[in-house]
Amino acid sequence: MNMYEDNNMNEEVTEDVVVENSDSENVVEIEKEEEKDTPNTEYYIENIRKLKQELKEAKRKEKEEKRRQREQIASTYDSSKKGVSIATVVVIAFIFAVIGFMASVVFSIFGNTLIESLTGRNMNKKNGDTIIIDNGPPINLEVDNIDSISTAVYAKAARSVVGIQVVKTSGVFWDIQVQVIGEGSGVIYSEDGYIITNAHVIEKALSPETRDVMPNYEVRVYLKTDLSEFFVANIIGYDTVTDLAVLRIDVTGLAPLEFADSNEVMVGDIAIAIGSPGGLEFMNSVSKGIISGVNRNIVMGSGSSAYDLIQTDAAINPGNSGGALLNSEGKLIGISAIKIVSTDYEGMGFAIASNTITDIVEKLIKDRIVIRPALGVTVNTNYNSTIARQYGYPNGALVYQVLRGSAADKAGMRENDIIVEFAGNKVNNFYDLRKELLKFAPGEEVVVKVFRPSSEKEIELKVVLDEAQ
Length: 469
Known about the structure:
CATH topology of the largest domain: Thrombin, subunit H
CATH architecture of the largest domain: Beta Barrel
CATH class of the largest domain: Mainly Beta
Distance between the termini: 7 Å
Number of domains: 2
Structural class: alpha+beta
Largest sheet: 8 strands, antiparallel
Number of strands: 29
């Protein structure tokens, strides 16, 4: 979209960047039990049992750590106290692995993972080259106790959350080397193999020219937490603006997540995240919190921006990228994407809203890309209601620059015009303008009302929108 926030005009205080270490002394080692051919429901019940055991052990260790810290504080109470300033950094919740060796054995910074070939378990049936999975009937939630919500949501939704791994292979067929490039999560979109994840989860495997996976790279999708089988995914399409990507695997009979209407999400609602924090070794881990905010817009360290996000205090850690953020009914309200790392900010994670996901995914499935309209102006995001009142101007989006030859230029828009209305809808700021603009397609004509400070008059302009490059 050729309408940009003027980041240079929008000065922000920056601090030294720190990266949160995803390793922890309190990491719980998951017991690997002998695989059993059991019905799908029993499989997830067993996972629930494991999670409860892990939670109990983690709480024990946390209690012990707090006791140790209290003793340490007591012993150093009279020592001098100096404040330590640690910066805030916005990070994407994705794991970049740095080590990878040996054929069929992938070694990452989070431990060893044995990758086996497809096992053809009893629950899977082959139909030509396509695997058919019997996931059983849909699961309906009936919860009487609020403490049981997380367990019930996990039982319903965990089978619809997958692990994603990007690998690079090299060598000859008798000595193939496999290197893990990164790991993340994804959610099942349809029963016939469509998977949604974040674009940044798979970007290291993609060619900018072909928009497809580069030679010697693979994007692998894991459906089971025992990591006993994976499916190589095809890239249907991706969109870096919204950080979404659509994959497809040759599997049918999958259990897609049910989508909630993110416009109905309210602050204070229960939020449950399922993903792979710390890597695929911890695939389908669960964390619970609440919705802390909606329609959040943030500017990341790179200068890029993310819009219309859902904020939650449910733990979103490296590896959660592309995983599910669910409501108390087990319906998808967002896809985990970003967290803020700082000692000054605790529990600030962000997810892409489900309504945004539905819109973008359908476009990617149809066209492989998202075609957006362009107005052709740069907006000064420093302009706000306080400045407007000071000068006696209306609220709106202040035009900092009009791109020569753009749709706005051809319609007669000028620098310092204040866009107050777009297609009949009031515009109070840049975010309103962006939201209204994205409702239209390139080539469509819209009426844009601007306030021109030089004449102190409102003017209506007819703009034929361009296609964003």
